[in-house]
């Protein structure tokens, strides 16, 4: 057995069922699982000193487009609404290939890790020039984060009344066959899995009704989760009403896209009836506050969703619309936006952090994650709160009010992915250099 002890944490936010908060706490990790939590835990293995630190569960990112880290702050898309932004970026993304997918995933996941994230989903819905989902899966294995990639797709191009260019859409039968291929090759349903695969047609405005329905049937036959974009902005609502004669929530329900095995990204424009539908069916939501602000989409009704007991997690969304991938900063933004919309007492720092941990675990169907409790997987973030960011704070556990946005140490399955603020698993400067070279080449072309 391999033991590791996190020792003498000044503050420990367990996010367990009782929401215990401990001082001077130890966490014993054995073979990737939390074995004990308390004071004065004894062991004979490796020790990580957490004096001066806040310890939390690893954060969980429920929505990303990792390939987009190559297209941050692209001129022409910086000040556009969703549909105009997509039309600017689609021709650039059409020039990607396997290397672009791999390198951008490395960079995006490393950035997330430095912000305290231990599990990220990803929504990859375009496959130009030979790119495949495993280009991202292999990159995630190298970085060492848990990964929940989803096999996305677009099948309705401009010629058929869709938004994407025809060069980026795929045949629907081929899409479903490739979903089967990647699930069979890479999905791990076991507790503690490092990789699970989902099925994720891109959006109601880029795939057919038939593909949405068939994807749901396939996913349930395979026992995997379903993901897509829904009700992101006013354009999205107008499209649904014009094309389908109903609102997005009703459209989703009619095609089997509600349930505890489904999570939808954004949901900025859900109305009270749709919120009630999601609550009754336990349908999850990936809340992406920074991207929603950047694209002018609006403020998602997270307070109403939480009050209705809709499962809600956080997502950084793609770095072409955020343009950052800092998950703890995303949690702070979520808290602030709910206060802007509903008052200063609408969301506490602890509740926002709970959404980023337990909330994300619930949305992604991972009861083995999201809290620091015996028997749960050892995905743990250690934050140094002895520095200037928290200087003068009366409550260092209120990380989102006054605290660092970069972890000191990050453990995934008990393995140290970040140590003393540095990624340990890949040569990050070399990866950044390659990323910048690829971005320059795309811009020059």
Describe this structure in a few short sentences.
The protein has 445 residues and is α/β, with parallel strands linked by helices.
Task: Provide the descriptors you would attach to this structure in a database record.
445 residues, alpha/beta, Urease, subunit C, domain 1, TIM Barrel, 2 domains, nine-stranded mixed sheet, four-stranded parallel sheet, 21% strand, globular
Your description of this structure?
This protein is of the alpha/beta class and 445 residues long. It folds into two domains: 3-56 and 376-423, Urease, subunit C, domain 1; 59-363, TIM Barrel. It contains 13 helices and 17 strands. It has helices at 82-93, 98-114, 134-143, 172-186, 209-222, 234-244, 248-254, 272-281, 289-294, 302-307, 327-342, 349-363, 428-444, and strands at residues 3-13, 21-30, 33-38, 46-49, 53-57, 59-61, 117-124, 146-153, 198-201, 226-230, 262-266, 284-287, 312-314, 380-384, 409-412, 415-419, 422-423. The strands form three sheets. Strands 1, 2, 3, 4, 5, 14, 15, 16 and 17 form a nine-stranded mixed sheet that branches. α2 (98-114) packs across α13 (428-444). It starts with a strand and ends with a helix. The relative contact order is 0.16.
CATH level 4 superfamily of the largest domain: Metal-dependent hydrolases
Tell me how many strands there are: 17
Mean of residue pLDDT?
96
SS-derived structural category: alpha/beta
Gross morphology is globular
- Our Rg estimate from Cα atoms comes to 21 Å
Tally of individual helices? 13
* Number of separate structural domains: 2
The main β sheet shows up as:
9 strands, mixed
Strand content: 15-25%
Spell the H/E element sequence. Answer: EEEEEEHHEHEHEHEHHEHEHHEHHEEEEH
Low-confidence stretches: none
The CATH architecture classification of the largest domain is: Alpha-Beta Barrel
Instruction: Report the span from N to C terminus.
Output: 53 Å
Task: Quickly name the level 1 CATH class of the largest domain.
Answer: Alpha Beta
């Amino acid at each position: 057995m391999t033991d590791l002890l996190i020792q003498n944490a000044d503050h420990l936010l367990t996010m367990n069922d009782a929401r215990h908060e401990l001082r001077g706490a130890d966490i014993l990790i054995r073979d990737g699982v939390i074995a004990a939590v308390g004071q004065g835990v004894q062991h004979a293995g490796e020790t990580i000193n957490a004096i001066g630190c806040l310890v939390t569960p690893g954060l969980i990112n429920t929505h990303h487009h990792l390939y987009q880290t190559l297209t941050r702050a692209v001129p022409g898309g910086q000040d556009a609404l969703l549909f105009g932004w997509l039309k600017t970026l689609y021709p650039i993304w059409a020039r990607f290939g396997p290397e672009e997918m791999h390198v951008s995933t490395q960079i995006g996941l490393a950035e997330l890790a430095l912000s305290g994230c231990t599990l990220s989903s990803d929504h990859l819905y375009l496959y130009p020039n030979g790119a495949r989902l495993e280009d991202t899966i292999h990159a995630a294995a190298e970085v060492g984060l848990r990964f929940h990639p989803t096999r996305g797709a677009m099948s309705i191009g401009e010629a058929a009344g869709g938004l994407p260019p025809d060069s980026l859409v795929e045949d629907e039968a081929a899409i479903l066959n490739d979903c089967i291929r990647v699930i069979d090759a890479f999905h791990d349903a076991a507790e503690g899995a490092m990789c699970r695969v989902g099925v994720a047609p891109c959006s109601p405005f880029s795939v057919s009704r038939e593909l949405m329905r068939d994807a749901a049937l396939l996913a349930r036959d395979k026992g995997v989760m379903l993901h897509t974009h829904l009700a992101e902005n006013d354009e999205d609502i107008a499209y649904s009403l014009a094309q389908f004669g109903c609102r997005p929530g009703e459209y989703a329900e009619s095609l089997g896209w509600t349930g505890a095995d489904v999570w939808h990204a954004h949901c900025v424009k859900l109305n009270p009836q749709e919120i009630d539908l999601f609550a009754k069916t336990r349908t999850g939501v990936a809340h992406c506050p920074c991207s929603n602000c950047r694209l002018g989409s609006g403020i998602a009704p997270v307070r109403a969703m939480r009050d209705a007991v809709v499962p809600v997690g956080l997502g950084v969304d793609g770095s072409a619309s955020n343009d950052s991938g800092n998950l703890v900063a995303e949690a702070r933004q979520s808290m602030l936006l709910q206060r802007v919309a509903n008052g200063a007492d609408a969301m506490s720092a602890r509740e926002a952090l709970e959404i980023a941990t337990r909330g994300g675990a619930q949305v992604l169907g991972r009861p083995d994650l999201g809290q620091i409790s015996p028997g749960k997987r050892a995905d743990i973030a250690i934050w140094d709160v002895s520095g200037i960011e928290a200087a003068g704070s009366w409550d260092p556990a209120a990380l989102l009010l006054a605290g660092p946005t970069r972890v000191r140490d990050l453990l995934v399955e008990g393995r140290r992915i970040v140590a003393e603020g540095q990624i340990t698993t890949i040569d990050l400067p070399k990866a950044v250099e390659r990323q910048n070279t690829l971005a320059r080449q795309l811009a020059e072309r």
